[in-house]
Amino acid sequence: MSTVKLPRFTRRAALIAAALAVLTPFAAQADNWPSKPIKLVVPYPPGGAADAVGRIVAEKLSERLQQSVIVENKPGAGTAIAADYVAKSPADGYTLAIAPTGQLTILPHVQKSGRLEPLTAFTPISQVAYTAVAIAAAPNFPAATLKEAVALAKAKPGDVTFSSSGSTTIIHLAGEYFAGEAGVKLLHVPFKGSAPAVTALLGGEVNLAFDTLTVLAPQIKAGKVKGLAIAAKERSPLLPEVPTVAELGYPGFEVPSWFGLVGPAGLPKEIVKRLNGEITAILAQPAVKERLAGQALQASPGTPEQFAQRIRDDYAKYGKVVRQAGITLE
Amino acid sequence: MKLRLIRQQDFTTGLFFLVTGSLFAWGSLSYKIGTAMRMGPGYFPLVLGALLAVIGLFLAARNARVDLTREESQLIEKPCLRSLLLIGVAMLVFAFSLQSLGLIVATVGLVVVSGIASQAFCWKEIGVLSTSLAAFASIVFSWALGLPLQVFPA
Amino acid sequence: MIELLGQLGQGFEAALTLGNVFYCLVGVTLGTLIGVLPGLGPVATIAMLLPVTYGLPPLSALIMLSGIYYGAQYGGSTTAILVNLPGESSSVVTCLDGYAMARQGRAGTALGVAALGSFFAGTFATMLIAVLATPLSEIALKFGPAEYFSLMVLGLVAAVVLASGSLLKAIAMTLLGLLIGIVGTDVNSGIERFSFGIPELSDGFDFVIVSMGLFGIAEIIHNLEKNESRQIFTSNVGRLWPGREDFRRSWKPVMRGTFLGSILGVLPGGGAVLSSFASYSLEKKLSDDPSRFGQGAVEGVAGPESANNAGAQTSFIPMLTLGIPSNAVMALMVGAMMIHGIVPGPQVMTERPELFWGLIASMWIGNALLVLLNLPLIGIWVRLLKVPYRLLYPAILLFCGIGIYSVNQSAVDIAFAVGFGALGYLFIKIGCEPAPLLLGYVLGPLMEENLRRALLLARGDATVFVSRPLSATLLALAVLLIVVVALPAVRKTREVAFQED
Question: What is the location of CATH 3.40.190.150 in chain A?
Fold first, then answer.
């Protein structure tokens, strides 16, 4: 493994290059922004909901800013690589990012090193879209309602299993959060992504699955799995017959999986204001809403302050879940 | 007459596996091992590393015979460090100039450095080759396929 | 049956419109192109083209995207045969005998057999999807963690059989591959292993890094140390087309490979990877003269190439019938469907039959187009080998570099590939074959993940692997294979056949 030492050097080289980029005179000027193409970093590989959000935003922003916005997929380490990359980019408005819930509100609680506090490392610009996390049961699982599932889990602690798309994802946290609220012990079975996690549910390998509506709604609709509940304020128009978790006796239980637009910390105020305005306008377009709805996503525009508040709230909420469930990467 | 291992290749292979396997096994000790029934993250690499080391030891021991009389049957060819080094450097030059100096400069760098590795190196030929490859790569990858690559120096 | 014909008719009606044939042609041409360029996979291309398809009708979009996917499988074998570069795990075994054939001046034969075998496999697998998609999708659900683990064990045992060197070295290389596969984040506990705090290692080495290093870069370094007056490729190109003898040797491997690939392709995660390896092992076991394998045996190209193409087609089954993507490309196809407001899932077949059957019909059309496109190209590819090597290798290095970089937009990845290149060069020097390492590397994480998941779900009861019938069957097959290899008589011939080189 002769290459082990190399990357440190290269990272430094990259940093120096980035520093040089900051020093170039025109880059930091906000008044003629944008004067060159903008990079929009997406922390997942192409294909998922985050990528879809990024591509829609990039396409529409390009039209409105009269400047090309290029999506750059930087997957890896559960969004940590992209987060690190964006935080270290110059705050000149030419590097923006789609940040999912987990990157800003869960990752900082579980990382051992390189932890990035969401509101000091990034500049929140606007929330873009969200979807709710749902709970589904395998076809061969005896419980058909959330109440029955909780009763079963109470009768045999640790016997009822749930699949997630990975450790320390918003899905994993949703499961642990619910277990904590319901006072039961569930056995967490992590998978590498949503596809295998849902396959395991379909095949009855696990009893329950937590995942976003994007993933679960088609399977629930087709009757392949039992939809138990949705962790949102209101029922979803996609599945009007599935109750919310709050309705079933856990008031206030909500796990939205959202995507926001952020930049590196210290983004000039004018740029934030301009971008927030553009995003709000873009999200008001019916065509955009429709395309988001294709991924079971709902547009959720707001001011930068509202977005920052959302980050603060969720950050505190998941910090508590992480501590209570004893989730560590040890 | 020199005293040499008759099965130099297999002996070296054994040593290599012994060292690599031991390193992995040793490294996995820093993770939670767990039990066979409830494996921790260190269990699988520990078992695999140990197995690899054992096979390596066996291979090395079995082939550690020396023979004075017969011709060596299995010698390792002398490695050509020059081409190894030049090809490696060429790739690294490409890698670390791509982002800042762009595809064209990076391509020229790669072609020139790797070209030196050839015994039939000729500046004129390399010049033509690097120019045409730089043009081809810019057109195909950046323009036609639309890869997010920096073409010109940033 | 009548109903099926009617549905297929409906499908062809939808797929044979001028526009759709055009998009199919665009897709397979683009697929061939990116398949030929080493390292540049269908995932990156489809991701980039996704926005382009917003404006197309849904069926046209899907036809084009899937054309890129299976077109890339055709193109990938070209690079594997000509320059020993496997761009995807499925073309690793094609390198073994395909490249050997190319060096003997039989590149045309290898490419021809690969194209025709792939066409047969594609046609058969497409028919299989039409007739048996729903029952086959049940297989995917029958595979729990225990079954996956047992399948991986079977695959690794097969990998050892596949090696042409000493048995012990092959086992060691497989183990090393498994260990390299462990680098990165552990799915079960979420911690990073052997990543030394380097963020680029937190998801392990990408396949392209390992294969481009071990095969591509190492081979170039090795070739350069030879005196260049000695040709890397024989200048005598020989016949362009497979001859009668090649067909006689190939047709059975093609059939068997198609069958294996069709079945394994249905399994999400790992199934498709195994198919070409399994086919190679099978052909080698069945051959009268296994020593020809690795030295340019046409069966070693025909079987795996058919298997890999059949697998590429049947990997659509879980996506089409269950709405579950079995690999990254299928995940993108799901994304494409969602953009058009089609929710992938079990209901697509009944609610949008023209889409389902149209896509299936287009696959057959696409495979036919690919053969028409690729056979004339063989002449050009073969002529490419006449380019002096001193001009060829910088180009290969450049394409490798761009390919590796484009996976994660990371320069560090290229540095890792250089490291694997040096390792591959060492393996050439000490006479170890990299193919088993690569298979171990691909299967390692899946194997560990499923082993631990199976035990977690069984609450630590290891009998789960033998108490589940499907898992037990797979393990029994693995044991059988070991017995066959270890039988004294067999081993003796094996030693004679392999140790003498």
Answer: 7-130+257-325
